[in-house]
DNA sequence: AGAGGTACCTGGCAGC
DNA sequence: TGCTGCCAGGTACCTC
């Protein structure tokens, strides 16, 4: 799925088309996503003005004065700006139609995504309240990582992918950031030095910023709001490159499983 | 508290 | 061709 750069690409793609417009109708073709899509959206949303499209971690927040529509793209979700004349495809589960007939369409083959409504302040929603800091904020830095790692024994890659530690870093960018920082993904989080965590925090920021600049990574089906793929996959240094030469030292890139997820690294460049 | 595994779902691919 | 098993960008929830 969409990790932070892909969600941010979606946000930037949809925002200019829908901000300031008023919801006219909601069509729910498939309510069985990660959690049931609430029926009440069909009566609650029409007539509400969308003030802004924001992002918290991998959640998109469509804010109105009366509450916030929370969208999550799961592993395979996509948002598309289109029109009601465009017939829905197989996995087009929910449509949001605005007063000028602009249509925001959620497609999600694997149905791990979510569409929820929060009438309370959205940062207090149970899914958002316990999230870690944004990786591109000053709150995320080497000192913070060292403090959160404590004496924990879990692999540093798993720490980085825990949204309660830091949001937005998924399986691709965890491998890429650890490569850039020169740290083995298997190292116990509690045994990593401040110096290394300072490097790691900077690497995470750099990798995410570069990926956002390229419109995200498209491995199979991620596209932006206009249906175009991202281009960061061309810049991946280790992810998906098992047995291919390391771009720094030519040693073959290795693949192992960490917490059931494929993890890629160079055993020479990362220590 | 922390670590590890399972579950949700669809579809593509390798291997037999 | 068809079956089986495995894999995929996430993450809440369960058990130990």
Please, could you describe this protein's structure?
By secondary structure, this protein is an alpha+beta fold. It has two domains: 4-129, MutM-like, N-terminal (N-terminal domain of MutM-like DNA repair proteins), CATH 3.20.190; 142-265, Helicase, Ruva Protein, domain 3, CATH 1.10.8.50. The strands form three sheets. A four-stranded antiparallel sheet has the order 1-6-7-5. A four-stranded antiparallel sheet has the order 2-3-4-8, covered by helices on one side. Strands 9-10 form a two-stranded antiparallel ribbon. It is globular, with a radius of gyration of 20 Å. Strand 3 (59-64) and strand 4 form a beta hairpin. The mean pLDDT is 97. Helix content is 25%, strand content 21%. It binds a DNA duplex (16 and 16 nucleotides) through residues 1-3, 6, 32, 34, 58, 72-76, 91, 108-113, 127, 152-154, 158, 161-163, 170-173, 216-222, 259-260, 262.
């Amino acid at each position: 799925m969409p990790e932070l750069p892909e969600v941010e690409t979606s946000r930037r793609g949809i925002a200019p088309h829908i901000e300031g417009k008023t919801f006219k109708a909601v069509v729910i073709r498939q309510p069985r996503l990660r959690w049931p899509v609430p029926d009440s959206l069909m009566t609650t949303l029409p007539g509400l003005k969308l003030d802004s499209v924001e992002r918290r971690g991998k959640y998109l927040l469509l804010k109105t004065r009366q509450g916030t529509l929370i969208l999550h793209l799961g592993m395979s979700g996509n948002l598309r700006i289109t029109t009601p004349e465009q017939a829905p495809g197989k996995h087009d589960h929910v449509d949001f139609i605005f007063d000028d007939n602009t249509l925001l369409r959620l497609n999600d083959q694997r149905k791990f995504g979510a569409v929820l409504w929060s009438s309370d302040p959205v940062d207090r929603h149970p899914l958002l309240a316990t999230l870690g800091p944004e990786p591109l904020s000053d709150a995320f830095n080497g000192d913070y990582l060292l403090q959160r790692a404590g004496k924990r024994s879990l692999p540093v890659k798993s720490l980085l992918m825990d949204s309660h530690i830091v949001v937005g870093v998924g399986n691709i960018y965890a491998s890429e950031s650890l490569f850039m920082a020169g740290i083995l993904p298997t190292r116990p989080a509690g045994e990593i030095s401040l110096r290394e965590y300072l490097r790691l925090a900077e690497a995470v920021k750099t990798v995410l910023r570069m990926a956002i600049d390229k419109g995200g990574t498209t491995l199979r089906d991620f596209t932006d709001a206009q249906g175009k793929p991202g281009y960061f996959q061309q810049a991946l240094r280790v992810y998906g490159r098992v047995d291919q030469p390391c771009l720094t030292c030519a040693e073959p890139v290795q693949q192992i499983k960490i917490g059931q997820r494929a993890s890629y690294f160079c055993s020479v460049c990362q220590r």
